[in-house]
Amino acid sequence: HVQLVESGGGSVQAGGSLRLSCAVAARAYIRYCIAWFRQAPGKERERLATIYSDGLTSYADSVKGRFTISKDNALNTLYLQMNSLKPEDTARYYCSADRLLNSKCPFGYWGQGTQVTVS
Asked: What's CA 86's distance to the chain center, in Å?
């Protein structure tokens, strides 16, 4: 069983920065994947950034160069540093995790999300 709790959302002006955190409570899996998603009203959920147990990361084109995903294994915490925020970044942000299965990530576990509003 995996529990994920996001925090760090809020309201910020365009051009500003926020850092989201996701506290992870889970047994230690050897091969895992964990990612940040967002969903704005009326839009599809979008995967923004993923980090794998081997340290590799990947980003959506929409956030590449502005957002950085990282994890602190000692604190069991995932972060998303968001810089140069734009109004179109306004959404509810979620972290999601799962074990890697045949090099694919099912993303079966989700947090409750944290709201980010950029004006």
From this structure: 17
